[in-house]
Amino acid sequence: MFGFSVLGSLRVHSGDHVVPIPSRRQRVVLAVLLLNSGQTQSVDRIAAAVWPSEGPKNPENQIAICVHGIRRKFAGRGMPESLVRTDPGGYSADVAPDLVDTGRILALTATAAELDRAGLVEEAAHRYRQALALWRGPLLQGLDVPALAPESRWWAEKRVDVVEQLARLELALGRSREVLSDLTALVAEHPLRENLQRLLITALYHSGRRADALHAYFVAQRDLRAGAGIDPSSELRRLHSDILNDVTPSVLAVA
Predict the structure, then answer these.
(1) CB atoms within 10 A of CB 135
(2) What domains are defined for the chain?
């Protein structure tokens, strides 16, 4: 069985073996195809990723050489060369979504959302945990591809969303202490993201750290005013009021 990972460094697995693809050009070509599995990518699109500044006037031959090299690496590990398909005007990856970590994450998070809507909190949290376990790092870590910056930002945002949803469910399951570390780190990275602030404040309160929860609200208020010129939302102010009055805030109200 084989598979691909793009969250973290690019990896190709065949059975228990990692298929080495040391060439930067080959890695970029394969990454572009995997991120758009089943969709033809034009030579120009691939070339823009391979050569961030000035590339060859006629990149077709260079891209074809890269594709040939990728196919040889696959064949050497018993993988079908047809995984990289030649199409009119370009190339595509003939790879099922569940063979790529991004595809598995999308499937897991979609299932988690359905379970959450059905009120199956533990099951939903389990799927979100499985999805997060597939993230080994940022998209294509160690491979600088400016043309794929939008995809990198999208997947970074997706991870924050998943952590948010999992933290909300873990709070509902009474696991406030377990989410404090991740929430603290994410709030430091995204101080203007109110939902993260609300989750952290709620987790602190439910962990018996009322003073820290009140301080976290002060920090959130300061950051929102300094960074965006706005005051905390009514929901965040209500949460602050509840904690001031020692009224236990609902863990699901932070969703």
Answers:
(1) 20
(2) 2-99 (1.10.10.10), 174-255 (1.25.40.10)
- Cα separation, 215 vs 243, in Å, equals 11
β-partners of residue 92 are 85
Q: Tens digits of per-residue pLDDT, 21-43?
A: 999 999 999 999 999 999 999 99
CA distances from 146 to 55, 139, 163 (A): 14, 12, 26
The per-residue b/e assignment along 183-216, b for 16 or more CB within 10 angstroms, e otherwise, is beebbeebbebbbbbbbbbbbbbbbebeebbeeb
Q: Which residues contact 47 (CB under 8 A, 6 or more apart)?
A: 55, 56, 59, 62, 63
Give the span between the Cα atoms of 163 and 14, in whole angstroms: 30
Whether the predicted model's global pTM rises above the 0.70 cut: yes
